[in-house]
């Protein structure tokens, strides 16, 4: 391997290492503060205790079942929201008439906190999975939709001329211009959408579920079992972190044309 | 040369409506025989790009007649080489060049082979898998030229394709363009504001007036082909023709400079 290339690799792995180590350092600091009685252990049980309890709940299957159901809800809701968000967003971006027709509707409904719709969702879909998936789906839908529209609208007009001059069909406009051109913005929308999904899943499970990480956090508050609550919080933090990492990696694979300078 | 390829009669274009209406093209008429390299020369803002976009079907004419003779339906009628960098950033050089073929439903293997041939012709063989942001300006316009040629259109429309390049690259690309074009019998309409370029490339120059764009002069450029840039520049006939064209163009350029921001007459 040539010299400069190796240096680039070294830099990348160094940055990766730092980004993995920094959260661990924070945990270490927490542990130390509790041990030296600078933090109240009743509200902030030391990470070592939490890890012990985590192991217990992991082995007896409590955590895996909560995690599985929460992840199922998040991913289903994400897909239910993001896929139509992209499709409708591309359509609104490509066709000004459709954009003009739908924009006021979107502008009027987008600001409604999606959590405020949970009671309605519970009424419509009942206490089953559909109500949570629908709530999360709504949250993702708007973020992906708005960012997709912006992504398509900002595509340089000359690319549309190119497509037209070379005889693109409607399908070609979607697949060779709008989708790839908006992809960076679509990813922005998806990252925001996943963040909102985590927020919504916890709230939805606190109110309308008998399982899941949100339920775990809420019940541990009710029985004042703070280790369990922290397990829930740490799990959420981990998922947030890994979702973002995962989307960033996916973005690098899917958008290889992105100019690193821009 | 054979029958007319392009016939334009009394073409006009108005942008906007009412008080804000601007007449961009006024009573433009000309005929282009098949296989001719026509240069449209005019000051900035004279509507020459608009004229080209109307020919390309990217803009609607307001009035007049326009006929492009499409001889072979299996072949696309026209392909355009755009002014700015118009390569799709999300496609590799190879996929950009093959874009027109892909739109026409030509199978991947064949379009790749044809695209590779033209990428080699413009000397970018080793960059086939690169993305546009990894190329220099000159390389990008080479790809644009290859993309239009590989599509094998009957008419090539070129909108100041080399205007943003430095002088050396411009000359190189002009030479390459002539080398690729000569012998293809393709009709070319080439928009430019450079007299040198028009004289070097064209069989004929249509000189346009400043806004609104009208045809001011129709000038035959009869230097034999293949043309050599160095030789042509030292040819006294080139100098004479340059002086003639500049004389006519100067009035238009001065006109627009002096009339910059004309007073609003209507409604004031």
Describe this structure in words.
The complex is a heterodimer of chains A (262) and B (268). Chain A is mostly helical and 262 residues long. Chain A has one domain: Orthogonal Bundle (MetI-like fold), CATH 1.10.3720.10. Helices cover 81% and strands 0% of the residues of chain A. In chain A, helix 2 packs across helix 10 and helix 3 (62-94) crosses helix 9. The longest helix of chain A is centred in the last third of the chain and has 39 residues, at 170-208. Chain A starts with a helix and ends in an 8-residue tail after the last helix. With 268 residues, chain B is an alpha/beta fold. Helices cover 37% and strands 23% of the residues of chain B. Chain B has nine helices and nine strands. Chain B has helices spanning 48-56, 93-97, 99-103, 108-121, 137-150, 167-181, 195-201, 229-234, 236-258; strands spanning 4-15, 22-33, 37-41, 63-68, 78-81, 155-159, 187-192, 204-208, 215-220. In chain B, a hairpin with a 6-residue loop joins strand 1 (4-15) and strand 2. In chain B, helix 4 packs across helix 5 (137-150) and helix 5 (137-150) packs parallel to helix 6. Chain B is globular. Classes of the chains: A mainly alpha (262), B alpha/beta (268).
Distance between the termini of chain A: 27 Å
**Individual helix count of chain B:** 9
| Oligomer state of the chains in this structure | heterodimer
Query: Could you state the CATH homologous superfamily of chain A?
Result: MetI-like
